[in-house]
Specification:
CATH superfamily of the largest domain: P-loop containing nucleotide triphosphate hydrolases
CATH architecture of the largest domain: 3-Layer(aba) Sandwich
Oligomer: single chain
CATH class of the largest domain: Alpha Beta
Largest sheet: 6 strands, mixed
Strand order of the largest sheet: 6-7-8-3-9-10
Shape: elongated
Radius of gyration: 21 Å
Order of helices and strands: EEEHEEHHEHHHEHEEEHEHEEEH
Strand content: 25-35%
């Protein structure tokens, strides 16, 4: 399959006190939902802020939609028209009312639909009537503030959504609904829309993830389509007497009185020949944790 990329990055670098984002190569495939996975402090928000143009004090090169640079993103209104962003914090000012969010969004973005925004606000239980549109952002719960941001981007005609931890403030039912909304967004213009969302807990979002980028320590530790990653890695359980042999093979491993379990590269599983093992296809969550642990151990 020949891929095209909605975002490409090269030598992206940003330094804070005690932390460095250092991404030599970034590729986000066009037409898919990509999960940016990593523990808190891995660099996910910094990277997304750079991609969204929230942070401009970085080094490196970026390319959007196969033709625009990050300079174009700042100077050509058409680029930002095609990009929607949701994230934590005060993206909407606390004293704004929901009505003002609608009014300001309609001024900022040509592709913003007031009708769709109002429909999404009702559908997501943010508002019930015109009276609710007078609510201030500061009075909304974290979950409703995130839902309001989601309503804002879904009311626009975009080609790319950048979503920083969209599931974190949502309840389990709404997380499931979020997955459905992401999938519907992609399907409406199949192959022409893309989503990049970050998460530190992939379990709730795995069913909508096509491609995964796993971050650790400010770097990309692993990346690939989920189905390919599940072929690259294998989950193994074994007996106590084989622990010493297994620890030389497994990527990461936990042990107990009943034996061991962990993740290893599929190409290495033959090195456990002669051991009594149970092999399973790992979840993306298991792969992500193993990759992050392995990366940390190598750096340590």
């Amino acid at each position: 399959m020949e891929l095209s990329y909605v975002i490409e990055g090269e030598n992206l670098y940003k330094k804070y006190r005690g932390f460095q984002l250092n991404v030599s190569k970034l590729q986000v495939p066009k037409g898919f939902a990509t999960a940016l996975i990593g523990e808190n402090g891995a660099g996910k928000t910094t990277l997304l802020n750079i991609l969204a143009g929230i942070r401009l004090d970085y080094k490196g090169k970026l390319r959007y939609f196969g033709q625009y640079s990050d300079k174009d993103r700042e100077e050509d209104p058409r680029v930002k028209e095609d990009i929607g962003y949701t994230g934590p914090g005060d993206y909407y000012l606390p004293h704004w009312k929901i009505r003002q969010v609608e009014e300001i969004s309609s001024l900022l973005f040509l592709g913003f639909s007031t009708e769709k925004f109002r429909e999404w606000c009702v559908d997501l239980n943010i508002t019930k009537d015109d009276k609710d549109r007078e609510k201030k952002i500061s009075t909304l719960s974290d979950g409703n503030r995130m839902k309001l941001m989601i309503a804002g981007v879904l009311a626009r005609d975009t080609k790319l959504l950048l979503m920083d931890e969209p599931a974190s403030p949502l309840d389990p039912l709404m997380r499931d609904r979020l997955c459905e909304m992401i999938r519907n967004y992609l399907c409406e213009k199949e192959g022409q829309r893309s989503v990049l969302f970050s998460t530190h807990n992939i379990a709730d979002m795995e069913n909508v993830t096509d491609y995964a980028i796993i971050m650790a320590g400010g770097r990309i530790a692993e990346a690939g389509f989920v189905e390919d990653l599940k072929e690259k890695y294998i989950y193994v359980k074994g007996e106590p007497e084989d622990v010493k042999k297994a620890e030389k093979v497994l990527y990461t491993m936990t042990t107990g009185k009943y034996g061991y379990e962990g993740i290893c590269l599929s190409e290495k599983v033959d090195e456990l020949a002669g051991c009594d093992i149970e092999a399973q296809t790992p979840s993306l969550s298991q792969i992500s944790v193993a990759v992050m642990k392995h990366f940390s151990s190598q750096r340590g």
